[in-house]
Structures are given as structure tokens and as C-alpha cells.
Amino acid sequence: MFPKVSLVIPVYNVEKYLHRCVDSILNQTFQDFEIILINDGSQDKSGEICDEYAKKDKRIKVLHKKNARVSAARNDGLKMAKGKYIGFIDSDDWIEPEMYQEMYNKANELNLDIVMCDYKKRLEDYENRRTQPIRGGFYSKKDIKNELFKCLIMFDHIEFPPTISNCVCLLSLEFLRKNNLYYDEDIHYCEDSIFGSKVMYHATNFYYLKDRHYYNYFYNPNSTTNTYNEKKWNNYLKINERLIKYFGKTSEFDFSRQIKINMLYFTLNMLGQINFSARKNEEKLYMIKEIMYHPNVTNIFKNFKLPNISWRGKVIILLIKFKMVRLYFFLVLDKRYKQELISG
Asked: Which residues does the UniProt record annotate as the domain Glycosyltransferase 2-like (predicted)?
């Protein structure tokens, strides 16, 4: 007898958080699931914790493998899954007890390809409830095209699309496999974004459980999402090229502006992270120049209308457009560096 829901959890060096994550699933009001723990080459006791859970509960499967990052781990789970629906959970996060009961009931009732809830960003003593600027409820294929294609890749105000967090989605496994929807295994940052856009593009229907904040996204300052890494830029360039190849030639909708805004977001993100890196000022100037003069960045501004954002944001975008490296550098510098310039 196959489970109704498969839950895939990539695990990498999270011994501090793994119990909280898995226990939150075991404590669900919905119990017809399997948990697939992908131990992605952990160097701490995470692998042992996975095995302990598997010994106690036959619904829990464990795959130990060499580290290949989250995209490959999720694909491993996709291939192993036996449920009618599949969900992904990050191992340092946790979920509310009613999450999968509500999501499965809605998905099963309406035979959905995707159902999505809201989430809370959590620190140890703080929470911020997040919701998407789209309506709640049911979307047909026509509704998806009319209402969601315009924010499939990026909102015009430089925000990620509704499906940016795949972990708040419950997905039909048959739908994913039928459309050959898997993660790009060489994408190690923002893998949720490109996968979510492809999923929504192919979906025949969708339901949004708006204001149901069932997923707890833990802000871990040591996670790859929140730390500076030079490899991110090449990763972002790769995503940009994949988006152009996947969505650039479709006749259903013109996604070209969204692709440009996505590349603009990546540019702003990298420039911001360079500012807060430990590099010397001369190195930072060189790195900023390399990004501003990159062809993918130059291409953003061909026949490009500035997005509807704050005047400060528009100024920064114009500095990038006109490649005003030193002025940008001065305007966004940390206070301590500004003081160095003034006093030096």
C-alpha cells in the first residue's frame, strides 16, 4: 500500500535542528506519509540521527550519499517517492501540526497539481508572517495564464514569484514526472526559483491556502542562502541562461521583462554581498566593476523601463546601468568604510 504523501528532507550537518524538523512531521494530524531523509554527506551526527528515526518508524527511509547539494538530494527523493503527492522540507525548518492534513485534503478534493500555503520566517524569539500578493483560492489553467504568468519568474517590483519557496507547496508526483520536472543539479543557489517557475508554467490547476501560515522557515545565518560566496555569481548567470532558454521562446507569454528583472535581482544581490564581504576595498571595487560590465547585466537595460520601486532603488539601478562603479561603491558603503574614506 503506497502512502498518500511523500516528504523529502535533504540533510546536511543539521544535528542541532533535525529532531525539531522530523518530530514536527511525526506530530502531524495527517499520518499517511513516508519521510525520505537524504543524508547528503553530513560530517556531524545527522546521519546517525536519520538512522535512529528509521529504526523507530517504518515510514522513514534514509539514503546516505556523498555531498552533491540540495538540488541533487531533492531529485533523489523525487525518484524514491511513492506517494500520490510530494512535499519538500528543509532540515532546519519545521511545520505546524495541521499543514499536510489541510493541504492533502484540498489537493485530493480538487485533483490539484499544486497546493500552496503561507509561511512564517522565524528566529529564536521572533516571527514574521509572510503571504503572497496574489488572491487565495482555486486557479484553473486559464486563471494561471491570466493572473500568474505575469509573475511566474519575478514580480515587477523585484520580488520572487509566489512559488519561491517550494517547501510551502504540495505537488502531484504524477504531474511532476509526466512533465519531467526535476531540479537542475548544477544549480546550488535559488534552485527553488527556477523549479517553481517551471512547475507553475506546466500546471493545469493550482490552489493557494492564503493566510494559512503552516511552514516555519528558520533564518539560519550560516546557511548557504545567507552567506557570501563567489560561486553564487556563476550560479546566477547559469540560471539567467536557463530561463532564457526555457521561457524565452514560448509564444504563450512574453517573459522577457521578468527574466531581465530576475537578472537585475541577482545583480543587486551580489553587489550587496560584496559590500558585506571581508574583502579589501580595492578588491571590492574590482569585483563590482566585473559585475556591472558583464554582458548579462548590460543586456538588462536594452529597452528596459525602470521597475516601480523606491527612488533609492531606482538610483542604485541607474548607477548600475551607467556603470558608475565608484559612485555606487561610495553610496552603499558600510559606515565604517565611509569613515575610513573621510578620515583617510
From this structure: 6-134
Mean pLDDT for 185-199 is 95
The angle that helices 325-332 and 281-292 make with each other, rounded to 10 degrees, is 120
**Cross-strand bridge partners of residue 155:** 159
Looking only at the bridges linking them, the beta strands covering 114-123 and 205-218 are parallel
How confident is the prediction for the chain on average, in pLDDT? Answer: 93
CA distances from 245 to 55, 153, 255 (A): 45, 13, 11
Distances (CA, A) of 143 to 149, 150, 228, 265: 9, 11, 38, 27
DSSP per-residue string spanning 198-249: HHHHH-SEEEEEEEEEEEEEE--TTSGGGS--THHHHHHHHHHHHHHHHHTT
The CA-atom distances, in angstroms, between 86 and each of 34, 44, 82, 313, 325 are 10, 27, 9, 38, 46
Q: What's the pLDDT score for residue 304?
A: 97
pLDDT in tens, 67-90: 999 999 999 999 999 999 999 999
Q: Which residues share a beta bridge with 136?
A: none
Helix-strand-coil percent breakdown of the chain, rounded to 5?
50, 20, 35
Strand partners, 130: 119
Question: Model pTM?
Answer: 0.92
Rounded CA-CA distance 124/20 in Å is 13
Cell of 208: 493557494
Top-confidence residue, 332 or 341: 332
Selected residue with higher pLDDT from 342 and 98: 98
Angle at 173 between CA 172 and CA 178, to 5 degrees: 100
pLDDT at 340: 46
